[in-house]
Amino acid sequence: MTRWLAEWSFAGLFALAKEAVAVSEGSQALLSCDYEDGSFTTFRSPAFPSHSIRIKEQNDEVCDAGSKQYTGWLEFHGKHIFFWYFDSLNDPLTDPLTLWLTGGPGVSSLVGLMLELGPCRIKPGGNHTERNPYSWTRNSSMIFVDQPVGTGLSYVDSHMDIPTTSAIAAEDMYLFLQIFMTEVFPERRQTPFHIAGESYAGHYIPTLSREILRHNQVPETPAIPLRSILIGNGYVSPLDTLYGYYETLCTTKPGVDEPVFNQTRCQIISENLPRCISIYEVCYRYPDEVLCRAADAVCSVIKELYHNESHAGGRDPFDITRTCEVDHLCFLQTLEIQKYINKPSTWAALGVPEAVLNFSIESKEVASAFEATTDLYSNVMNDVKYTLEHEVDVLIYNGNLDLACNTAGNLRWANALRWNGQAPFTSEDLKPWYSSVGGSKVKAGTFKEVFTSVPKGDFGKQRFAFVTVDKSGHMVPLDQPEVALDLYQRWLFQKTF
Fold it and tell me: Which interval of the chain is the signal sequence (predicted)?
């Protein structure tokens, strides 16, 4: 059965589903299958009777991927989570599975799929896609999920609320992964599982990792084989991100010829930073909504020096060397993806239900829901620590030209992380690493990593790595696709930098 599911023939799928439904009452069916309109197949399970997955096979018409691909929705309690799955181009039976989450909060993971590391890329004009030669599907199956619910093509019924915290989103995602691996792709429990993402996924990923690892300890609960997490330009610790503004804007360390800000503006940051950090530390200790909003207001004088000039034609917070192309997200391609997904032909191919009125690359509703809580002001360093303590490797990688989730801030919290590898990690200096770009060996950035022994661990060594990427901003796979693929493959296959 496992072998058959890995091959994913839908003719075989229907046959197996019918066989499962026909199992006698004295036996337990692994799944059941209901037919809807001939294009979707719905999976249900006795273990999760109120949850189902609707799934359909896609061809290369919408996304020129070159491998098997499937889209659908996990549906439960009035929530509907959209996903897009791709087989590895190499060996889907043995290659790992990687979940990709874009940040926001509320930005669709189709940004990662069609702009960065997915098997297809949006073409200029937003009418077609083309094959991505640097896709991360080269050696891994990939699944892109629009979450929290309300993001992208995910939606809630009218009586349901949108999630307001990373913890609530993690609960939903754990259920999604459990059903996906139990009912649809059970062979995935035999291959390593990785979670990757960027930006606000620096909150999502450690929180989801803790949720998975906590459930993995429950007896008789099918374990999700989480092997590592990868956080690119992540929003892990807001305080440290703010601390990194000075180095990013007032020095040449990001890889610029001259500092972005003049001496006057740098003096304003320098004078206001101590008070900003002090009150933010109080917010960390006592995560009260009013207190944390006050801390954010105190720190706004630092942020607004740059962000008040971030608009179309102005400064780009995601790459300090670029001009912002369009308001807010700054990348014109995000609007082209939005245009492409909203095409009637794309809508029909994906089978988008009538409840979804249109696709937006960013959900203002999700962003507002998170802003109404302390989630935006919290740090998730304890969840990173928990992940490391439970035998899961952690990679932090950063494009050096990003201000929004800057290298200096992320290195600061990585050094401050209190775990059994802190002493060797902080004592390490950043060293250059090299990659191949256009056939030539180039300095790709810097790195440091430690391997620590884990008592009774299954893998012998625990790995924590911090890697920087030169000439790259917020989206490393977009700015440096060859380097990003090299970085990803080295990590997957336990090779050093």
Answer: 1-22
Average pLDDT, the chain: 90
402 catalytic? Reply is yes
User: Mind listing the pLDDT tens digit for each residue in 61-81?
Assistant: 999 999 999 999 999 889 999
Residue 396 contacts residue 234 (beta carbons within 8 Å): yes
What is the average per-residue pLDDT within 273-301?
92
Q: How many helices (H) and strands (E) does the chain have?
A: 16, 16
Residue type (1 letter), 406: N
Q: How far is CA 29 from the centre of its chain?
A: 33
Separation of alpha carbons 133 and 136, rounded Å: 9
Cα-trace Rg, the chain: 22
What pLDDT score does 190 carry?
84
Determine whether 356 is exposed, middle or buried from the number of CB atoms within 10 Å of its CB (0-12, 13-18, 19+). Answer: middle
Residue among 108, 154, 166, 199 flagged as catalytic: 199
pLDDT, position 6: 34
Residue 47 has pLDDT above 90, yes or no: no
CA–CA dist 285, 428 (Å, integer): 29
Q: Where are the domains of the chain?
A: 2-239+378-492
- At residue 176, the 3 state secondary structure works out as helix
87, 95, 172, 402: which is the annotated catalytic residue? 402
User: Rounded distance, CA 314 to CA 230, Å?
Assistant: 31
State residue 52's pLDDT score: 87
Which position has the token pair 């691909």? 69
Counting Cβ atoms within 10 Å, is residue 125 exposed (0-12), middle (13-18) or buried (19+)? exposed
Catalytic annotation, pick one of 80, 474, 479, 486: 474
Report residue 381: phi and psi, to 5°: -60, -35
Give yes or no for a contact between 86 and 97, defined as CB atoms under 8 angstroms apart: no
User: Residue 48 pLDDT more than 80?
Assistant: no
Rounded to 5°, angle at Cα 29 from 28 and 35: 155
Distance set, CA 494 to CA 311, 369, 391, 394, 460 (Å): 41, 39, 14, 12, 13
Contact (Cβ atoms closer than 8 angstroms) between residue 202 and residue 379: no
Q: By the 8 A CB rule, do 195 and 118 touch?
A: no
DSSP type of residue 189: G
Q: According to CATH, what is the number of the domain 2-239+378-492? A: 3.40.50.1820
Q: Is the peptide bond before 148 cis (omega within 30 degrees of 0)?
A: yes
Residue in this structure with the two tokens 């391609």, named with its chain if needed: 333
Distance, CA of 352 to CA of 360 (rounded, Å): 13
- Phi/psi of residue 232, each to 5°? -100, 125
Determine how many CB atoms are found less than 10 A away from the CB of residue 331: 23
pLDDT in tens, 404-429: 999 999 999 999 999 999 999 999 99
Pairing of strands 69-76, 79-86: antiparallel
